[in-house]
Amino acid sequence: MPKLKILVLMSVMALLAAGAAWSQDEVMTLDTKDLGPHQRPLVVFNHEAHSQNIECQTCHHDYDEYLNNNFEDGAPCAKCHRPRATAQNRVPLRLAFHRECKGCHSALMERGTPAGPVMCGQCHLRGGKKKTAAGN
Q1: Mean pLDDT calculated for residue range 19-23
Q2: For 23-35, what is each residue's pLDDT tens digit?
Q3: How far apart (Å, rounded) are the C-alpha atoms in residues 29 and 47?
Q4: Residue 77 predicted with pLDDT over 90
Q5: In Å, how far from its chain's centre is CA 1?
Q6: Across residues 122-126, what is the average pLDDT?
Q7: Per-residue confidence at 88, pLDDT binned at 50, 70, 90?
Q8: What is the pLDDT of residue 106?
Q9: What is the 3-class SS of 19-34, one letter each residue?
Q10: What CA–CA distance (Å, rounded) separates 101 from 59?
Q11: Taking 70 as the threshold, does the pLDDT of residue 131 lie above it?
Q12: 32-128 adopts what CATH topology?
């Protein structure tokens, strides 16, 4: 019986560890190699804080020709948005990032809701230190 308890406990721990290994990083650096050399410091993005308040398909969208959102869990922006605009890629990658992030923050601010940064230097921080929405 003690061996069974140990086996069950080890199985539960293994499942918990596996879930953590496959989960999204809490904080990530947005470094899209497709854009080439970056002119500004990379953006440090707290995915976990955003995912607690925003539904995944808000950012990870996949609109068809009828503007239906065929949500694909976890698809990165660069999967569909290429670096340069084309007839098939009307919203290039850099613009997609800025529209999603800055657009959402601006809309929240207009409603009087605490929001994240909207100015370039507030996201693209030199030295890698990230301020919170409260400015801490």
Answers
A1: 42
A2: 456 888 888 888 8
A3: 10
A4: no
A5: 46
A6: 91
A7: confident
A8: 95
A9: HHHHCCCCEEEECCHH
A10: 9
A11: no
A12: Cytochrome C3 (3.90.10)
Burial class (CB in 10 A: 0-12, 13-18, 19+), 63: exposed
- The one-letter amino acid at 25: D
Which residues are 63's β-sheet partners?
69
The type of residue at 1 is M
Q: What angle do CA 74, 77, 80 make, to 5 degrees?
A: 105
What is the DSSP track for 18-72? HHHHHSPPSEEEE--GGG-S-SSPPEEEEHHHHHTTS-HHHHS--B-TT--B---
What is the spatial distance between Cα 119 and Cα 108, in angstroms, rounded to a whole number?
A: 14
Contact 45, 30 (CB under 8 A): yes
Instruction: Report which of 23, 31, 41, 26 is spatially closest to residue 117, judged by C-alpha positions.
Output: 41
Per-residue pLDDT, averaged over 6-34, amounts to 62
Residue 25's pLDDT is: 65
Distance of alpha carbon 93 from alpha carbon 89, whole angstroms = 9
